[in-house]
Amino acid sequence: MASSALAKPQMCGLLARRLRIHIIGAFVVSLGVAVFYKFAVAEPRKKAYADFYRNYDSMKDFEEMRKAGVFQSVK
């Protein structure tokens, strides 16, 4: 058995190399999740609010709630 036939394992700098790979991977995944959230959740929510308030009449809504008896201080 020749000991020179086996390659020595790389131990020096192993932790730093693995951390570098994992930090880059975590950054890429978090960037992907942020982009997904922006286009799948935030933009449709902004559009829904804009569509709702485009034709919203607050006085009409107030009068309907007043007639329904929601407010105690308004007759």
From TrEMBL:
Its main location: mitochondrion. Keywords: Membrane, Mitochondrion, Mitochondrion inner membrane, Transmembrane, Transmembrane helix. One of its GO terms (cellular component) is respiratory chain complex IV. The keyword Membrane applies. Pathway: Energy metabolism; oxidative phosphorylation. It is a single-pass membrane protein. It comes from the Eukaryota. Pfam families: COX6C (PF02937). One of its GO terms (biological process) is mitochondrial electron transport, cytochrome c to oxygen. The chain crosses the membrane at residues 21-40. It is found in: Mitochondrion inner membrane. SUPFAM superfamilies: Mitochondrial cytochrome c oxidase subunit VIc. InterPro entries: Cytochrome_c_oxidase_VIc, Cytochrome_c_oxidase_VIc/VIIs, Cytochrome_c_oxidase_VIc_sf. Component of the cytochrome c oxidase (complex IV, CIV), a multisubunit enzyme composed of 14 subunits. The complex is composed of a catalytic core of 3 subunits MT-CO1, MT-CO2 and MT-CO3, encoded in the mitochondrial DNA, and 11 supernumerary subunits COX4I, COX5A, COX5B, COX6A, COX6B, COX6C, COX7A, COX7B, COX7C, COX8 and NDUFA4, which are encoded in the nuclear genome. Component of the cytochrome c oxidase, the last enzyme in the mitochondrial electron transport chain which drives oxidative phosphorylation. The respiratory chain contains 3 multisubunit complexes succinate dehydrogenase (complex II, CII), ubiquinol-cytochrome c oxidoreductase (cytochrome b-c1 complex, complex III, CIII) and cytochrome c oxidase (complex IV, CIV), that cooperate to transfer electrons derived from NADH and succinate to molecular oxygen, creating an electrochemical gradient over the inner membrane that drives transmembrane transport and the ATP synthase. Belongs to the cytochrome c oxidase subunit 6c family. This is Cytochrome c oxidase subunit 6C. It comes from Otolemur garnettii. The gene is LOC111724885.
